Amino acid sequence: MLIMLAGFTVQAQEKKNKNAKYDVEVKGNCGQCKARIEKAAYSVKGVKQATWNEESQDLQLIVDETKCSVADVRAAVAKAGHDTDEVKAEDTDYNSLHSCCKYDRS
Predict the structure, then answer these.
(1) In this record, what's one Pfam family (predicted)?
(2) Would you state the pLDDT for residue 16?
């Protein structure tokens, strides 16, 4: 009986949310940035919704954690040239942004 109960506990811990919500800070300036950030987020399989807000510098996500993680999304957005709260874009990716999209990196 104890072994069976332990098996259910392990299975419950491994369950992933198919509609997990996250807010991720993402740096950007304009409508071009919004389109690029959201496109990068949607390029990650498992992203169901991605909406970036210019004023709050916040990317609101709904992801299927059985297919991706929020870390995957942060990496994709950084590869597109935008710093996130945990992953900084490479200088070459940032420098490839249009001049109006170059945000303050301090």
Answers:
(1) HMA
(2) 87
What is the reported pTM?
0.85
- With CA atoms as reference, report the closest residue to 83 among 24, 30, 20: 24
Do 52 and 23 meet the contact criterion of CB atoms below 8 Å apart? no
Where in the sequence is the domain holding 34, given as residue range(s)? 16-100
CATH of the domain at 68: 3.30.70.100
